[in-house]
Automatic annotation (TrEMBL):
Protein name, UniProt field: WHG domain-containing protein
Highest taxon listed in the record's lineage: Bacteria
Protein source organism: Streptomyces acidicola
GO MF term list: DNA binding
Lineage of origin: Bacteria, Bacillati, Actinomycetota, Actinomycetes, Kitasatosporales
Domain HTH tetR-type, chain residue ranges per copy: 5-65
Gene3D superfamilies assigned to the protein according to its UniProt record, in alphabetical order: Homeodomain-like, Tetracycline Repressor, domain 2
DNA-binding residues (ranges): 28-47
Record keywords: DNA-binding, Transcription, Transcription regulation
Length: 201
């Protein structure tokens, strides 16, 4: 493929596809260069280094994921919104494993603040939780509960970690229902703590 055909967008999209194929941790500049039939050095006109490439993949994947979630939760509230959010999250994680892994990396907070996709993720997530009557610091605590539950479940499911005969989908549905109950009966904080966690939470 001609070197002149390289663009940042094409490189990032190809890196995201490569991540889904071989694992996000195996995405390298050399592997990407081979995919385009060019020398590694040709990529540096478009991305600074491997970290820059991986961060761009994370932003791409984050945008794709929140687009799915936003479409799923539109017009919904309460348990319906939570279930739609959870199902869209899980579907993306299982269908796009490399991209999903990219969304879990730590990103410089200055870059997070400039990312429309991550700001939209925070707006939709916090907006859904505010419908349960939560304010800070309970909002951040609830976001952490949802994120750790969803991520932990998806990671275990993807690795074949659930060995019991119980249907995995049924357990997922029950877990989401339990989260709904927890959010409806959230223990209120009486200590005056403040502060919304970073937008990447």
């Amino acid at each position: 493929m001609a070197r002149a055909g390289l663009t940042v967008d094409r490189l990032v999209a190809a890196a995201a596809d490569l991540a889904d194929e071989v694992g996000f941790e195996n995405v390298t500049l050399s592997a990407l260069a081979r995919r385009f039939g060019v020398k590694d050095a040709s990529l540096y006109a478009h991305v600074r280094n491997l970290q820059d490439l991986r961060t761009r993949v994370a932003f791409l994947a984050g945008g794709e994921m929140i687009d799915r979630i936003a479409a799923a939760v539109a017009g919904r509230a309460g348990k319906d919104a939570l279930s739609a959010f959870a199902d869209a999250y899980r579907a993306y994680a299982l269908e796009r494993p490399g991209r999903y892994a990219a969304t879990q990396i730590r990103i410089d907070q200055a870059l997070v603040a400039d990312s429309p996709a991550l700001r939209r993720t925070a707006e939709i997530t916090y907006g859904m939780l505010r419908a349960y009557g939560l304010d800070e610091p309970d909002l951040t605590d609830a976001v952490r509960l949802l994120r750790s539950t969803f991520h932990g479940y998806c990671a275990l499911e993807a690795s074949g970690g659930f060995g019991a005969p119980r249907d995995v989908q049924a357990s997922w549905d029950r877990a989401v229902a339990a989260l709904h109950v927890a959010l409806e009966h959230w223990p209120r904080n009486d200590h005056g703590e403040e502060g919304e966690e970073s937008r990447s939470e």
